Amino acid sequence: MVRCKVIVGFLAAFLLYGAFGAPAAAQGAKVPWAREHRLAVSLNFGLGSISLSRYHEGIDSNLVSFQPGVTKTSDGKSNFQINTEISFRYYFPYHLLAEVGIGAIYNWASLEGKAGAFVASAGNHTMVMEVPLLIGGYYPLIDRIYVHGAIGPSFFFMSKSWWDPGPDFEADGGVGMHISGGADFMLGENFALGLELRYRMLKAKQAKYKGTNVVVPGDYDFDYSGISVIFNIRLFAI
User: Fold this and answer.
1) What is the pLDDT of residues 193-233, one digit of tens each?
2) Handedness of CA 128, 131, 134, 140 (dihedral sign)
3) Which of 71, 96, 144, 216 would be a feasible disulfide site paired with 220, CB 3.0-4.6 Å?
4) Which H or E run contains 43?
5) pLDDT tens digit sequence for 16-49
6) How many domains does the chain contain in total?
């Protein structure tokens, strides 16, 4: 008789758990924030280097060509670049992601020369717009942190160079390449901060005088290739 009561009590407890306890546990199960089927809008700000060595050959020549009587006393002093971007990233199942963005890369350089007893200086600003289209993967390490990497082409345009003083140049657009990798930390279900390392292969060819179709003689390619560290702010729409 006692055994029957124990069995009946056990079955009653099991049924009560199945009716109320299990659904409650399922509802309370934590869904990881770093997960698939999510769309993120990202604001990216980066600092890094830029490969301007071949273009600086043109800068050096320009100081002499457009400033008669000037002798160069220093090379271009900057290969430092700033880049900004807004992008849209979607996290697919099977740890796949796709991202498209639009951004700008800016560099400023200067060099000095001497004209008799006077010191001459010239400043140069270069900028290019780009649209990277990347595919890659991501992997949640824990609920709040995931790592990611991507690769793909970058379509660039509006490659321009401004001199102070001196002539302005522009170059044809084209297609380059991006390779990136980084990690994001989820501060909330819809907000994350991250760091990313990105390498660009980006060279605009056929530099010409701005506003004309006259190609500048010599090697005047604008080379924006380089490595940058990018700080990401991601807002998750879904």
Assistant:
1) 999 999 999 988 777 777 777 776 666 678 889 999 999 99
2) positive
3) 216
4) strand 38-49
5) 444 344 443 344 445 667 778 889 999 999 999 8
6) 1
Q: Is residue 16 part of a domain?
A: no
Alpha carbon distance 199, 46 (integer Å) = 11
**CATH no. for residue 230?**
2.40.160.20
Whether 166 is covered by a domain: the verdict is: yes
Whole-model pTM over 0.70? yes
171 vs 209: CA distance, rounded Å:
9
Q: Are 148 and 138 in contact (CB under 8 A)?
A: yes
Rounded to a whole number of angstroms, the CA Rg of the chain reads 28
- For 81-116, b/e burial (b = at least 16 CB within 10 A) is bbbebebebbbeeeeebebebebebebbbebebeee
36 DSSP assignment = S
For residue 120, give its domain range.
36-236
Q: Residue 10: how many CB atoms within 10 A of its CB?
A: 10
Q: Which residues contact 154 (CB under 8 A, 6 or more apart)?
A: 130, 131, 132, 133, 175, 176, 177, 178, 200, 202
Question: Which DSSP symbol is given to 74?
Answer: S
Q: What element of type H or E holds 34?
A: none
